[in-house]
Amino acid sequence: MLSATLLALAVFTQTPRFQSEVGIGFRHEPGVETKALLQVSVSAFTRFGASLGANIALSAGDNPGIAGYGLDGELLLLPPVRLRLRASTNHNQWSSWRVGENSVSAMVLVAPLRRLELGVGTAWRVPVLDSAAYFSPLRWQEPASEWSLLYRLQWAFIERPAMGLAAWIANDDRQNPATAQQFPFGLGGFLRIRPNWWLKAGIGSNIKGLSGAIYSLGEVNARIGVNHVF
Amino acid sequence: MSSSRRPATLSSSRLCAVGVLAVFLLPAACKWNVGQFIAHPSIAERMTDNQSGELSAPAAPEVNPDSFRFALFGDPQIEEDLASRLGWFKQEVADRKIDFFGVLGDLTNDALPAERDAVLAGLAAPGIPYYCTLGNHELYQADGWGWFKQNYGPSCYSLVVADRIRLLFLDTADGLLGQEQFDWLERELAADAGHVTIVATHYPIYDGVQPIMWRLAGPAERYKLLSLLERYQVHSYVSGHIHGWRHSRLGALNHFICALPPGGMDYGEPGYLLFTWAHGSLSWEHVEFDSLAVP
After folding, report:
1. How many CB pairs below 8 A link A and B?
2. Residue B13 backbone phi and psi in degrees, to 5
3. Do B219 and A178 touch (CB under 8 A)?
4. CB-based contacts of B220, cutoff 8 Å, min separation 6
5. Which domains does chain B have, with CATH numbers?
6. How far apart are CA A89 and CA A69, in angstroms?
7. pLDDT of residue A14 exceeding 80
């Protein structure tokens, strides 16, 4: 699927500039699931600041197999403040529970300061509770569908050409979409290991129980991967 | 002549001082013990207590096995003024011959002694067996969990009524189930002997399309729970937390939010959910609060 997407992106964007990323991750939500993830994504960029990408995640441990896949696009509207419009559609699934979720989202992101990124948006989430069709990315009219508000607040402590480190509060992770009841936060960084090659890593958690003001740490997420621009 | 007076604005140091004062004074003015927001006994600790054998599960009510009625509602949430709709509910118990009832957390608003005394008296007043589980408001005082288990026993337990209905009370006071409770729930569901099963707890799984947060926290947790409820053909999931009335059909599952708070509702009418077992099947209706019928 990724190679076909790569070819399609090359045709439609008329540019040979691509970025690919391969990473492994770990997710532990007590009582819910513990799994390792293999995540692969490719993106193509145009000279006008637009990008198109595809991603897939496979899991081992709880809910083995395909964890999710999706498409996303981004359009740079105002370069001086990096004002961008991002849209994506995703399918996530949990094979052991035979439950899926299809979602479509849109976000506006902006960097009013060099180190600060802010984003806000919305997502329409459609759980597929039908155990005979949980794997379908085409089910969009299901009970228990709901809107989610998306947000991102990210501050870069270190921002150099060869390395960066940022803290974030955000619920827009496409493979681990959060609801308003959770408060996700974490740290992420990158390090240039060779020209056009980057090592990326991140760790995050979230606070649950916001509506009741009885707070608990909800989960642990960790990722490490390699990013290549060619 | 120009004036040398500075404009009347707050300096940044004054703003900081006001902010620091607010941080310390607001919690002091609050009736809740805000330290409990973080330092409350965790669901793992509460499940350890629940499964320790030291808290005996409430005894099942004695009912006519061919025909009985029970009520479920959440959030009586008695506040400092001690107002509640439990007086009306007491009259309903008598009028509709309800055999027993369950209360799905948030018994009081602030967990203060006077509120606790009032809810104990208000729930005992109908004179029939009743069963409770824990809500987030019970944990707003340091002795909240201790008070609850002393008066009501465990917050997570199973109740089989007349070998027909099985009620599974879950503790979702902090908006999650946790490992131990998920394991307990799966064991209970798997060990079923053909009863009609109802899950009763504080937090809803689903609360309409709006992006609000009065529901169980994580999507994965909600999906795992829904998957279990579907696999074991659970009849109903009844909850409170948000002060509303809503019935949703999630596959074969009836999902209810049913609150009976003393004040206004977020949506819907206050009331209780009345289940009737008769002629070998279970039916339900939402009985709305009637202000004219208050004794």
Report:
1. 144
2. -70, -35
3. yes
4. A29, A32, A33, A94
5. 36-293 (3.60.21.10)
6. 9
7. no
Contacts of B136 in chain A (CB under 8 A): 209, 212-214
Helices (H), B110-163: 113-124, 144-152
Of B181, B230, B241, the CB nearest to A131: B230
The reply to whether residue B217 touches residue A181, judged by beta carbons under 8 angstroms, is: yes
Residue with token string 């009065």 = B214
Partners of B135 on chain A (C-beta within 8 Å) are 212
Encoded amino acid at A130, one letter: D
Q: Inter-chain contact A143–B249, Cβ cutoff 8 Å?
A: yes
Q: B248–A145: do the CB atoms touch at under 8 Å?
A: no
A173 Cβ under 8 Å from any chain B Cβ: no
Number of domains chain A is built from: 1
pLDDT, tens digit only, all 295 positions of chain B: 334 444 444 455 555 555 555 555 555 568 899 999 998 999 999 999 999 999 988 999 999 999 999 999 999 999 999 999 999 999 999 999 999 999 999 999 999 999 999 999 999 999 999 999 999 999 999 999 999 999 999 999 999 999 999 999 999 999 999 999 999 999 999 998 789 999 999 999 999 998 888 999 889 999 999 999 999 999 999 999 999 999 999 999 999 999 999 999 999 999 999 999 999 999 999 999 987 777 6
Structure-block tokens of residue A118: 């802010």
Kindly provide the ipTM of the predicted complex, given to two decimals. Answer: 0.91
Tokens (6 digits) for B31: 């009736």
Half-sphere exposure at residue B271, Cβ-oriented, CA atoms within 13 angstroms: 17
What CATH number does residue A216 fall under? 2.40.160.40
Chain A residue nearest residue B255, CA to CA: A144
Counts for chain B of helices (H) and strands (E), in that order: 8, 11
**CA-to-CA separations, A39 to A97, A223, B173, in angstroms, rounded:** 21, 9, 35
**Among partner residues A143, A179, A206, which is closest to B248 by beta-carbon distance?**
A143
Structural domain that includes position A53:
2-229
**Residue listed under structure tokens 């006519």:** B64
A62 touches chain B (CB under 8 A): no
Tokens of A80: 């001086």
- pLDDT tens digits, residue range A109-164? 999 999 999 999 999 999 999 999 999 999 999 999 999 999 999 999 999 999 99
- Identify all chain B residues contacting A217, using CB atoms and an 8 Å cutoff: none
Q: Which residues of chain B does A212 touch, with a Cβ-Cβ cutoff of 8 Å?
A: 135-137, 173-175, 203, 241
From chain A, pick out residues whose CB is under 8 angstroms from the CB of B38. 215
Can you tell me which residue has the tokens 């990473």? A23
- Whether A188 has a pLDDT exceeding 90, the answer reads yes
**Contact state of A144 with B248 under an 8 Å Cβ cutoff:** yes
pLDDT of residue B18: 53
Confidence check: pLDDT of A183 > 70: yes
Residue B6 has phi, psi (to 5 degrees) of -80, 150
Residue written as tokens 């029939």? B128
B-chain residues within 8 Å CB-CB of A95?
none
